[in-house]
Structures are given as structure tokens and as C-alpha cells.
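testing teh design pipeline on a random one, pls ignore if ur not involved
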């Protein structure tokens, strides 16, 4: 009887799932109160759009959404719910690996405790240069947002390198006055928020 009831339960569960309509979040998926200015929204990465939705679900401020993984993505979301687009650049590890693989004699750098400012050894010069490239892009993004009359009030950081970038941001005179939120799973939060609006 127990085996039979389990079998019926499995059938019942499968029937429940069959009643659901398949939902897939894409770059052109609609979310109430938001829109993107991406020229072809269907080419906007679903992960980027989900992260932007996640930031919107948590805050209504002018925000930079930064996902610091293999690639670093920087997106501007206005307090008005408009996604103004963003940038994609190589992530920290990808930058370091490309220097090692595409140059004649540079080693693969290892992150260690180092002094701020200019490095006095090759390892720290690579790490510091890659960090500076990331922070420079973020600083430029805040300047562009200000020129667009959407001055950044909050920076959302997610991804494997989020903590590293958060530490570097606090060293920046330009950025350390902004609210910085290091979070995990911003993409998942956005996907969940979007899914709830579909029900």
C-alpha cells in the first residue's frame, strides 16, 4: 500500500507541474514599473536584466548594479525605473589571466595583502592595475550617470569578486560617500520578483 500511495503521489505531483505554464526570464521580459532603453532588449542578458529587477525590488534610488564575476557588468537604473544600459568589461581574473597568457613574461598574479597606491613589484602591479581598471570604470559610470541627471545614490555589488571591489571602492575618495550594498543572489532575487509578478 505504501508503494502504491507513493506511486500515486508521484503521478499527482507530475500532474500538478503539468498545469504550470513555462515562464522564462529574458532581456525583453516585462516587469511592472520598469523598462529598458536597450536598442534590442532581446539581446540584453537575462542575468543582467534579472539583477536590475532585483535592485529595483529592493530600492527605488538611482543605482549602479555591478555583477563582478568572469565579466564585470555595470548597469544604470534610474529611480524612475528606467534601465539606461551599461557596460561589460573583463572581470578581475580574466584581466589577470589575459596578461599572463598574452604577454611574454608576465606571471599569473596572486592576490595578497598589498599597500594602496603604485606597486613596487610585478605581482602587485598586475593586481593593482586590474583593480584600478575596475574602479576607474565604476567612477566613470557615476560621472556619466550624473551628466544624465541620474546621480548614483547606491551601488549594488554582486558576484564572486564583489567583496574585493567593495574594499577597493571604500578606498576611493570619489565613491566612498555612496551607499554600497554587497549582496549575494541579486540575479535570483530579481528572477523571483519577476516570477511573482507573473502569477
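output:
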Amino acid at each position: 500500500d505504501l508503494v502504491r500511495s507513493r506511486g500515486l503521489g508521484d503521478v499527482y505531483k507530475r500532474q500538478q507541474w503539468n498545469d504550470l505554464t513555462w515562464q522564462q526570464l529574458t532581456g525583453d521580459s516585462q516587469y511592472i514599473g520598469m523598462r529598458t532603453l536597450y536598442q534590442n532588449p532581446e539581446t540584453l542578458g537575462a542575468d543582467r536584466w534579472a539583477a536590475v529587477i532585483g535592485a529595483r525590488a529592493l530600492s527605488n534610488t538611482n543605482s549602479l548594479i555591478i555583477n563582478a564575476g568572469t565579466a564585470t557588468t555595470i548597469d544604470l537604473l534610474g529611480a524612475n525605473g528606467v534601465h539606461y544600459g551599461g557596460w561589460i568589461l573583463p572581470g578581475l581574473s580574466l584581466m589577470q589571466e589575459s596578461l599572463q597568457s598574452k604577454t611574454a613574461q608576465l606571471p599569473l598574479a596572486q592576490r595578497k595583502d598589498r599597500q594602496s597606491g603604485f606597486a613596487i613589484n610585478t605581482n602587485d602591479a598586475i593586481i593593482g592595475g586590474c583593480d584600478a581598471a575596475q574602479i576607474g570604470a565604476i567612477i566613470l559610470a557615476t560621472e556619466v550617470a550624473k551628466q544624465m541627471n541620474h546621480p548614483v545614490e547606491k551601488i549594488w555589488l554582486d558576484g564572486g569578486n564583489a567583496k574585493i571591489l567593495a574594499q577597493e571602492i571604500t578606498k576611493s575618495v570619489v565613491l566612498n560617500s555612496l551607499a554600497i550594498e554587497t549582496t549575494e543572489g541579486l540575479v535570483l532575487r530579481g528572477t523571483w520578483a519577476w516570477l511573482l509578478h507573473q502569477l
